[in-house]
């Protein structure tokens, strides 16, 4: 389980670094963002802001996943002590 968490974080950080370093093609970033934004129903960013929006999505996914996992472990250990 811990290996999966570490791998997930490493992959997400590598993806963020690749987007920030512009090694991921712009059309791929645009296609992924349009899919996410259309699914949720929000407006798409301008083409010059797509990389920043992708980095914000990656950081949000990391924060939500790690935060939820932390809260699960934190609450489970507190309940086990009671």
Describe this protein's structure.
The protein is mostly helical and 82 residues long. The chain has one domain (2-81). The chain has three helices and no strands. It has helices at residues 2-20, 26-40, 50-81. Helix 1 packs antiparallel against helix 3 (50-81) and helix 2 (26-40) packs across helix 3 (50-81).
Mean pLDDT: 91
Beta-strand percent range:
under 5%
The helicity comes to: over 70%
> H/E series, N to C?
HHH
Count all strands and give the number: 0
Shape: elongated
Largest sheet: none
Q: By helix and strand content, what is the structural category?
A: mainly alpha
DSSP helical segment count: 3
- Radius of gyration, whole Å: 16 Å
Q: Gap between N and C termini, in Å?
A: 25 Å
Uncertain ranges: none
Domains (count): 1
Supply database-style keywords.
3 helices; 82 residues; mainly alpha
Task: Provide a short characterization of the protein structure.
The protein has 82 residues and is an all-alpha fold. It has helices at residues 2-20, 26-40, 50-81. The chain has one domain (2-81).
